[in-house]
């Protein structure tokens, strides 16, 4: 039997919002360690990986590892019926074909119980190797979202040029050229406004804006986003979920003419 | 001659919002007692009934009973031209084919006068018999609206199960099953947050969510909604308009398998 | 070489919003006096004229007169990438085919540089003769916007009847008739709430609401709008931009039956 409880439905709603445009169906793997999900997007270009640690929940019980195959759209639709402040309980039997979600309002006089049918999904898990990255950029997640959205007006790709002390985001297109420069920003009142660049060697790589814009749907989950980047390996766009886990997206660089400006 | 005046256009705008998706044309019956309207919805499934008492107006004069046939869409469009705080005057001659609406802003330097053409409508009035109901539920109108909207994600119908102390709203569909339980709620800071269940015998009836969702367009009119319900007679969904009257909707229960869960 | 700087991108964004639905391509004429633009709308019915004076900028340098042909949609798209509080610099070489726009955030650690390709446009400038007008009405710009929007629900045209002390806006249509009367309003707390009517002879002219509603896209630029009106010449709808210049729209009256009510 599996049963877990979160004090606020909001975080689970935000996680579904962060995933639903990328993936249609996915498997939540449940173990004593917590919940996790890994899936290629529906066009098999990027990968998303979610970890929610057992100790981040109000209560968490999992007697045997189980796999919950869900239609993401349905799960999001049902979670939308929860108010942000409702507490939420997820339950499933070891061999059942239902996921039960219970939402309870703060003063306890409204309880909503949803039973969602599970799907038999056969999804292959890719191993994600541990990796050292040449650069790690941390920046306000909403600033990253704006930049990706703005540059999509110009072109299909963004070139990330990371050097000591700053980052350039450039895009080319029929209507012109754009370069957004962000300088490291350390002395800030609010930690989430910081921009930090941790670099062992400069990088200069190009990525598809279409996918970065999908990833920024996770913006409400975290004040900061981290970009981990090295030549020849996928970029990692990571959002930490306070005390609970993370959502990470992986996207391989474009290998075309990224050096001619 | 008919002439009446309300201090705020807002309430009349809200009434039109509450009616307009259900009915395309209707007759406002004007008498010395006030304004009233009764109409089946355009697919002849539900019935709506509005009463606005003469004593709720700033001034009300009606020399002879008259019937004002209006296109609801047109009347709503014109009322939208009034600001919420404008005072509003309705005028019609006894044998005229025009309804005049005058909106005046609070400091009196802007006056808008709209003359709307009336229609010759032949609408049969149904008698609505006085009725004792097995159960009367009163609850926050926005909570009822949320429940009806949420359950429409699951199925086409909602089953209302009313017992002493609480109400269950259940829905079934391809994606699963939902049950929302509301417990009676008496000690509240704000009267409109209360949930009360007045019951002489338990009921268990099923209704089309499509129509309940039309009815909840009246939510802005009143903090509370009342559900009056008895076996074999239409449900009454009622919204009181403070000091002025009410909007009531009538909907017959579905007679299919409402008892197998 | 041309280079100018504004402390807030907001005003330039608002100007583009005010123009973009009317004109697809236009030429910004740059001289030592400032920036100006004049263009017929794409259906050649109305005319728009913009003046931004050199002295209204933080800095302004123009060595030789140049003409910058721009696609309005592209320019607006790029300006939308600026935050309202960013300062903005425009730059162009004397014989170049690029307009460079640089946005810098207030604390100076984010710089966005956009290079927009210019177009070779051959646009004929109409002389706008200096003119005395029979009436000048000044009123809150958002009130004018509401009136034009409301009356479009009734008919295609508005008749302006201006007499000493007030203005009538009337419209006729299949659903009825509307007349909105505005009285002169002098004693107001906020200057932008005033309604003033300056009149040498009464006028009574009819205009296409479709175009007036395009013009009111300039509403955010100014708290007040001015209507300058005389028989047989185009109405001027003007929005002053504080310390910087103005946007003016010209629209000829309709010559059909404007006098039979």
From TrEMBL, chains A, B, C:
It comes from the Eukaryota. Its main location: nucleus. The lineage of its organism: Eukaryota, Metazoa, Chordata, Tunicata, Appendicularia. Gene3D superfamilies: 3.70.10.10. It is found in: Nucleus. It comes from Oikopleura dioica (Tunicate). This protein is an auxiliary protein of DNA polymerase delta and is involved in the control of eukaryotic DNA replication by increasing the polymerase's processivity during elongation of the leading strand. This is DNA sliding clamp PCNA. Residues 1-124 form the Proliferating cell nuclear antigen PCNA N-terminal domain. It holds the Pfam family PCNA_C.
